[in-house]
């Protein structure tokens, strides 16, 4: 009897997990120019208030730069938003994504 109850509980849990894992069809909206903030790391805007950009952003490694540029290359909406702000791909050095999906693009 205990095995039957355990099996029923297992089946119930796996059915619930499968239903929970299904795609709801809701996707994050594509970033618009309003959702993209461009920060020039050569003119660190945070320097005036005593804080500085993290070292990984102000002096990014080639891997960080390559990953950021690859992210832009694979996202047509981000490309469009950056084009509206006159940002060229080769100037992108890092990208951060906020919890709301907005992006901060760091350029040189």
For the structure shown, list the relevant keywords.
three-stranded mixed beta sheet; 108 residues; alpha+beta; 15% strand; 4 helices; 3 strands; globular
Question: What features would you describe in this structure?
Answer:
The termini are far apart. It contains 4 helices and 3 strands, in the order αβαααββ. It has a domain at 33-107. It is 42% helix and 15% strand.
Structure, briefly:
This protein is an alpha+beta fold and 108 residues long. It has 4 helices and 3 strands, in the order αβαααββ.
Question: What is the element layout, followed by pairings?
Answer:
Blueprint: H1 2-21, E1 36-40, H2 55-58, H3 62-73, H4 76-84, E2 92-97, E3 103-107
Parallel strand pairs: 1-3
Antiparallel strand pairs: 2-3
Numbering strands along the chain, what is their spatial order in the largest sheet?
Answer: 1-3-2
Strand pairing plus helix content: what structural class? alpha+beta
The stretches of 5 or more residues where confidence is low (pLDDT under 50) are 14-26
What is the count of DSSP helices, taking H or I runs of 4+ residues?
4
Find the count of extended strands (DSSP E, 2+ residues): 3
Query: What is the helical fraction, as a range of percent?
Result: 40-55%
Shape field: globular
Residue fraction in strands: 5-15%
The value of Rg in angstroms is 22 Å
Mean pLDDT: 76
What separation lies between the terminal Cα atoms? 69 Å
Oligomer: single chain
Order of helices and strands: HEHHHEE
Tell me about the largest β-sheet.
3 strands, mixed
């Amino acid at each position: 009897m205990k095995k039957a109850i355990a099996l029923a509980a297992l089946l119930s849990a796996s059915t619930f997990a499968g239903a929970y894992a299904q795609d709801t069809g809701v996707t994050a909206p594509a970033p618009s120019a309003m959702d993209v903030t461009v920060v020039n790391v050569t003119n660190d805007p945070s320097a005036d208030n005593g804080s500085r950009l993290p070292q990984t952003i102000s002096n990014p490694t080639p891997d960080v730069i390559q990953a950021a540029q690859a992210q832009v290359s694979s996202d047509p909406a981000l490309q469009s938003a950056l084009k509206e702000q006159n940002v060229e791909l080769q100037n992108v050095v890092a990208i951060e994504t906020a919890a709301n999906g907005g992006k901060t693009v760091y350029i040189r």
